[in-house]
Amino acid sequence: MPPPGLLVRQASLTFGDRPLFHDLQACFDASSWTCLLGRSGSGKSSLLRMIASLKLPDNHHIDLETSDGSPLTGRLAWMAQQDLLVPWQRVAGNVMLSAHWRGRPTSADRQRAGQLLEQVGLADKAEQWPDELSGGQRQRVALARTLFENASVVLMDEPFSAVDAITRLELHELASRLLANRTVIMVTHDPLEALRLADRILILKGEPARLVSIGVPEGSRPRPLDDSELQRRQAELVTQLRESDHD
User: Fold this and answer.
1) pLDDT score of 133 more than 60
2) What are phi and psi of 154, to 5 degrees?
3) What is the H or E stretch that residue 10 is in?
4) 1-75+153-247 has which CATH code?
5) Residue 14 β-bridge partners
6) Among the residues of the chain, which ranges form H helices?
7) Beta partners for residue 155, in sequence order
8) What does the pLDDT look like over 222-237, one tens digit per residue?
9) pLDDT score at 45
10) d(CA 8, CA 60)
């Protein structure tokens, strides 16, 4: 079944007496990768959590529709900034964490976990403990765990921000390949990351914030660092973000 597109209507968020945004609307095309950017405190991660129906300690509202009319339940996966690996499970067990929650993992679950670890380059780490891994390896395990859900919609909240620059570039390559043909929405603070990965960039600007669509370079994802258009658009995107507090 193809992944659905998402339509957000009347998204509103208030912290105390401060309205972060009001009546936002956005369309996320099926099988596309959208990056959400904005200054700290603009509400990017909160909007992502609203789409995922995760709990928020504030006043908020969202109307969410799917392009196929079916609910997102069972079709959505979440990848956080922290790897969130549990220390009492080995690497393979962390990949199968949702299967453990449902009961005892099956042989098919174990086979799938092994295949995913091979895809992320960690087949030889399956029986190691999380504290034996580097930060980049832990994030690869987190990516494999996200893929284990086989979800058609993937929400990512700054998933690569905690690793070094070279590892981040490698994870861009890996995620672009393994998350192909899914509907992905990713929050990031990194303009270059957004320009490499996104089919579309949305910036939360102003207060209350509105969503502004920004063009991306041509070419397949992830776009090469030496792409001249990527470099030009990076400067434009940084300018847009710097101006967002003055709108």
Assistant:
1) yes
2) -125, 125
3) strand 6-15
4) 3.40.50.300
5) 19, 59
6) 44-51, 91-95, 97-102, 107-119, 135-148, 165-178, 191-197, 228-243
7) 78, 185
8) 999 888 889 889 988 8
9) 92
10) 13
